[in-house]
Amino acid sequence: MKRLFAVLLLSLTILTACGPAAEAEETPVLLDQPELEELEGSPEPKAPKEPVYLNSDLPAEERAEDLLSRMTLEEKVGQMTLIEKSSITPDGVEEYFIGGVLSGGGGTPSPNTTEAWAEMVDSYQEGALATRLGIPIIYGVDAVHGHNNLKGAVIFPHNIGLGATGDLDLVYRIGAATAEEMAATNIYWNYAPAIPVVQDIRWGRTYESYGEVTGLVTQLGKAYLEGLQGDDLSDPLTALGTPKHYIGDGATIWGSSMTGSYQLDQGVMTATEEEIREKYLLPYQAAIDAGALSVMVSFSSWQDTKMHAHKCLVTDVLKGELGFEGFVVSDWGGLDQVNGNYYRAVVESINAGIDMNMVPYSATKFINAMLEAVENGDISEERVDDAVYRILLAKFKLGLFERPYSDPALFDLVGSEKNRQLAREAVAKSAVLLTNENAALPISKDSSLIFLAGEGADDIGMQCGGWTISWQGSKGAITPGTTIKDAFEGAFEGKLQYNRFGKYDNILDENGNPAVADVGIVVVAENPYAEGVGDSRDLTLPQNDLEMIERVKERSQKLVVIVMSGRPLVITEALDLADAWVAVWLPGTEGDGVADVIFGDAPFVGKTPFTWPASMDQLPLGSYDTEPLFPFGYGLEN
Ligand code: GLC
Q1: End-to-end distance of the chain based on CA atoms, in angstroms?
Q2: Are 69 and 23 spatial neighbours (Cβ–Cβ below 8 Å)?
Q3: Mean per-residue pLDDT over the chain, rounded
Q4: Mind listing the pLDDT tens digit for each residue in 114-134?
Q5: What is the whole-number distance in angstroms between the Cα of residue 244 and the centre of ligand 1?
């Protein structure tokens, strides 16, 4: 009898703690009658069953409901807080029940190694798992062209190059490869793919887009997301994607931005609702149908309202009409732009449908505003529960509760030869042959002398562009890779003379006269930039590039110009100076892909994903009636 009583006490304790009114108690489970009877005869009382939310055999929906029912308001608001890793410690993650931590562009550990990344993410995870309910954080990065903050990761062509390939299978494989290299660092949330349908290539984020046509962007964005997320998000080699930036981020009007010196980025979209639905909404519908569980809102505005506070588009359309069941994350401090009064900004944005706020610096400022707003009834508990449920649902589907820490066995996935070959394939397929007179291309490997010129020909930082190791990217040997010059030297057995400025005064022929190359190759390139920093009122080829082209032309029988840029440049004035022009966009670390098409080891198949303007007067797209230099989809083949 004594034993039974003890058992009953145990069960009563459990019953009290688990009562329907109980909230946020340390509670195992309710033992119902059959289990009690079973206990009567057993020698020892059974340990209480694990809480529903910790049972990985149960559906994510059930687990999320159960966990939500156990949480305090502070724990819920903590889950809605996404903070930059330099602005929180692991102890802070524990203290404030933080739901997400991110590395902004360049938010790297020191040293910038796979092991150090994994250790950094694990340390924040330890803080999260030390909380009462042990809810793991979700750690996010912008792995927009490979795991691009991590030194040694394979840097794939930026999306503009992938748009030029039009190759769904290739882009799927790149998504999968990116998830692999992220997984090695225990990071399972990628702020990609960007799916703007860009209408003005003066925008500094043009290269983050697949192109100017809705269909292309829709298909490639979906393919990337499917590759990144795989068939099962709980697979340790897949990651959660974040189609961004909802909505119309690439449709703003020049000069409408209120952010610093920006002109287009974070500006105003003037499209009609019909245009929005026809041009910019379809990529999101496709992404949601493909399983997107996180969407990032845009800094842009529409109808005098910041997208971060646009309840109609975020809640009624995205969550309502499109049926989005995941969570909406703000952009970097995006809430702050909604209203000069931070409390009002929080109220308007969260009520508009933002579920997780990328604060990104002060967790307590946001948390306190949230608690006050719920206290005041300005934000309902239902809205908070909806946001937290969406966040927990993604975390359960990702398997974060079962796999919170890094796996050293995955470290070698970073920079793998397999992924480098995939990137090389993408570089070759992204190259667009614009002109090819006198059969200049491909260049014969039997040529005796080739002149190579241009700073971008031997600079991995310029070859990768923005969002590489640092937010803006930078020139120089910023990460291991193969420059165009390295690649040409590897592919061509003849004599290759490189000079950054295209000056070969000391290169003489056997008669002591200035040598003339069989082929001169000039690489003209943009300097790295990201976001509104890259907004540019003039995309015309700079004068010094024009002069370099003319210099090399004088010393070459044939001349090839390679354009390495984040968007089409205005090259009309120089076009006739060269026999051939090739656009390689921002290829990333695998310059061998450029050599493959230049020397004929791979065919030219790329098609420009943007209309190539003949002059600056032809921007933005569709605002002119003159012929562009090359139309959307143009590209010679050989
Ligand atoms: C940036 C970008 C966004 C990125 C986020 C986190 O400002 O707008 O694309 O995902 O901040 O780095």
Answers
A1: 90
A2: yes
A3: 94
A4: 999 999 999 999 999 999 999
A5: 9
Strands 305-306 and 301-302: antiparallel
**Average pLDDT of the residues in 578-598:** 98
Give yes or no for residue 579 CB within 6 A of ligand 1.
no
Alpha helices, DSSP H only, in 447-604?
460-464, 484-491, 543-554, 592-598
How far is the centre of ligand 1, averaged over its atoms, from the C-alpha of 87 (Å)?
16
Q: Is 612 helix (H, G, I), strand (E, B) or coil?
A: strand
Which ligand 1 atom lies nearest to the CA of residue 208?
Answer: 9
User: pLDDT tens digits, residue range 367-392?
Assistant: 999 999 999 999 999 999 999 999 99
Q: Residue with the nearest Cα to atom 11 of ligand 1?
A: 332
Q: Which two tokens stand for residue 635?
A: 């590209």
Query: 129 is written with which tokens?
Result: 């798992």
pLDDT value at position 20? 33
Q: Is 568 near ligand 1, meaning CB less than 6 Å away?
A: no
| Residues noted as catalytic | 331, 531
Pocket test for ligand 1, best of 82, 191, 266, 307 (most atoms within 8 A of CB): 191
Confidence of residue 40 (pLDDT cuts 50, 70, 90): low
Query: Could you give the CA distance from residue 251 to residue 426 in angstroms, rounded to a whole number?
Result: 27
Q: How far is the CA of 142 from the centre of ligand 1 (A)?
A: 7
Compute the Cα dihedral for 462, 465, 466, 467 and give only its sign.
negative
Q: Indicate if ligand 1 lies below 6 Å from the C-beta of 191.
A: yes
Alpha-carbon distances, residue 603 vs 36, 429, 589, 595 (angstroms): 73, 8, 20, 11
Ligand 1: residue whose CA is nearest its atom 6? 104
Q: Which two tokens stand for residue 32?
A: 């119902």
Q: What's the order of all strands across the beta sheet hosting 294-297?
A: 244-246, 294-297, 327-329
Among 169, 199, 193, 209, CA closest to 278: 199
Q: How far apart are CA 358 and CA 172, in angstroms?
A: 28
Indicate the Cα dihedral angle 129, 68, 310, 82, nearest 10°: -10
What is the 331 CA–ligand 1 centroid distance (Å)?
6
Say whether the peptide bond before residue 193 is cis (omega within 30 degrees of 0). Answer: yes
146 Cβ inside 6 Å of ligand 1: no
Residue 265: pLDDT over 90 = yes
- Quick one: which of 408, 428, 437, 388 has its CA closest to 561? 437
Q: Does ligand 1 lie within 6 Å of residue 262's CB atom?
A: no
